[in-house]
Amino acid sequence: MIAIRWLTTAIATLLLAGTAQSTAAPGETVARFEAELSGNAFPDITGSLATGHAVLILHPDRQTVDIDLDVTGLNSDALWDRLVAAPVGPTHIHLYSPDGDAVLIMAFPFGEAYSNTARGLRLRAKDIGYADNAALVNSARSFADFTSALRSGNAYFNIHTDMFNDGEIAGKFVEKK
Question: pTM for the whole thing?
Answer without folding.
Answer: 0.83
